[in-house]
């Protein structure tokens, strides 16, 4: 990293047409590596997650900010880095790419009922185990041509599950946290992109 690198970024200028063609790319995510942590890859994004982000494009299209919206497949990108995503966006003929990423962290512990697990049968029905799930999603809108960053947003989603040790489901808690995070992220990024026209 040099002063010249910083100056090159400062020299970038917005150049989106009005309206512009929007591409959406869901990025593989790497994150925490603790014993109860889960990093997401693209295969774990749910159709409902993609639908919420796609609705951003539809809303922006109805307001005249966006002319067309398309998902950019990971198959057309050589990697997950921004340059590869921009190249994939160019292949799809879009002007800007909304890159969406997310990571989940899970904390599992026993509550005050946990000591009763010393008995043989209690882990089956005593709600002594708690799972706290945190999901952080992020989105950045990048110019395909010159890597200008138009907007970025981040949103947290939290969910807690309290059940017996044998009935606890970390994946369910993560799913709820992810849904809350993506919902908030979609609202935030749509507001930011709408402001580009002002």
List the helices and strands and how they pair.
Elements (H helix, E strand, L loop, with lengths): L2 H8 L9 E7 L10 E3 L7 H16 L3 E6 L10 H10 L4 E15 L18 E15 L5 E15 L6 H26 L3
Parallel strand pairs: 1-3, 1-4
Antiparallel strand pairs: 2-4, 4-5, 5-6
Helix pairs in contact: 2-4
Short characterization:
By secondary structure, the chain is an alpha/beta fold. The chain has helices at 3-10, 47-62, 82-91, 170-195, and strands at 20-26, 37-39, 66-71, 96-110, 129-143, 149-163.
Q: Would you write up a description of this structure?
A:
- The chain has 198 residues and is of the alpha/beta class.
- It has one domain (3-195): Double Stranded RNA Binding Domain (2-Layer Sandwich), CATH 3.30.160.
- 30% of the residues lie in helices and 31% in strands.
- The protein has 4 helices and 6 strands, in the order αββαβαβββα.
- The protein has helices spanning 3-10, 47-62, 82-91, 170-195, and strands at residues 20-26, 37-39, 66-71, 96-110, 129-143, 149-163.
- Strands 1, 2, 3, 4, 5 and 6 form a 6-stranded mixed β-sheet that branches.
- α2 runs parallel beside α4.
- The model is unreliable at 31-37 and 39-43 (pLDDT under 50).
What brief labels describe this structure?
4 helices, alpha/beta, 6 strands, 198 residues
